């Protein structure tokens, strides 16, 4: 069978798509997958490295734009639609799965017009605009959180969870290399693009950590724009840290971490629960419907994570949370246990099984 996975833009959309591709390909040597995205998305940078076939189409968002920009965007979507028809005719997929992000719109609509089975997967508790629109025409909707069902009235949804890449599901156990003795490992990352606010807060936290800061083994992902500033910030304060713009091997990074400081994107949440990590979540406050805060709260209320809202984020506050958890390993162990209990590990299998059944 042949499957197109469309969408991306950010890692939070793309990586669940990769997890579905892994599962689909594992089911039969004759199975083929093609990804469809845009040149501005993370997919254009990552897919060639990962060895997946990728076609690029023209597409862009419309939310919050003025009339002229909206018209230009509509033009790009129309052009993307005609590119999509060509891709569909050449690849002849049995089904198309949209994983969110505007690149999924033209190709799902074109597939629908050609009588090909179409599906969407929504990672968040509150769906983005593309999935809201596409939900009206697709053959199946997969959701990661129960709350999302209410956004798709009149449609039946299947609760599958958010697919996690095999590398992270299985690799992290093998790459588990937690620190022993006197050191404590911190993994700091701000979703797939990095987070300047978290970067600054971490640097501001260091003076409040006193001598303890020299016991930390820090891996800090900053995003492309902030890497030099953050690297210099650690150096200026004499603190050892591995500062990277992007972490290619998240499995090893999770495996080594005693504590994670991160945003609360849906795919981050799926991964930290699968790996059973203690986390301090700092939700991105401008995500649609404040969904990152809702994601984090669902863990916090089960004692499966701690949260600092950006409005309360200061170096002193972050340092106090870090120190508290360093000094109370039993609290970290409790967070880890509770996070692990919330993990949904078979999302990719459930999605592939449902799509294959409907496409047969
Ligand atoms: C600002 C914003 O609107 N972000 C949205 C975006 O987040 P974003 O793209 O940041 O996605 P998530 O936080 O959900 O997931 C990040 C993904 O990137 C990977 N990773 C991250 C850093 C790194 O250095 N290397 C790496 O591989 C992680 O392992 C994970 O697979 O999509 C998510 C899923 O739809 C949403 O919930 C988020 O709200």
TrEMBL record:
Glycosyltransferase family 28 N-terminal domain ranges (all copies): 4-142
Catalytic activity: di-trans,octa-cis-undecaprenyl diphospho-N-acetyl-alpha-D-muramoyl-L-alanyl-D-glutamyl-meso-2,6-diaminopimeloyl-D-alanyl-D-alanine + UDP-N-acetyl-alpha-D-glucosamine = di-trans,octa-cis-undecaprenyl diphospho-[N-acetyl-alpha-D-glucosaminyl-(1->4)]-N-acetyl-alpha-D-muramoyl-L-alanyl-D-glutamyl-meso-2,6-diaminopimeloyl-D-alanyl-D-alanine + UDP + H(+)
One annotated Gene Ontology cellular component of this protein: plasma membrane
Class of this enzyme: transferase
Pathway: Cell wall biogenesis; peptidoglycan biosynthesis
Cell wall biogenesis/degradation in keyword set: yes
InterPro entries found in the cross-reference section: GlcNAc_MurG, Glyco_trans_28_C, GlycoTrans_28_N
Principal subcellular localisation of the protein: membrane
Keyword Membrane attached: yes
Listed EC numbers: 2.4.1.227
All copies of domain Glycosyl transferase family 28 C-terminal, residue ranges: 186-349
Gene3D superfamilies, sorted: Glycogen Phosphorylase B
PANTHER family: GLYCOSYLTRANSFERASE, UDP-N-ACETYLGLUCOSAMINE--N-ACETYLMURAMYL-(PENTAPEPTIDE) PYROPHOSPHORYL-UNDECAPRENOL N-ACETYLGLUCOSAMINE TRANSFERASE 1
Function: Cell wall formation. Catalyzes the transfer of a GlcNAc subunit on undecaprenyl-pyrophosphoryl-MurNAc-pentapeptide (lipid intermediate I) to form undecaprenyl-pyrophosphoryl-MurNAc-(pentapeptide)GlcNAc (lipid intermediate II).
Protein's recorded name: UDP-N-acetylglucosamine--N-acetylmuramyl-(pentapeptide) pyrophosphoryl-undecaprenol N-acetylglucosamine transferase
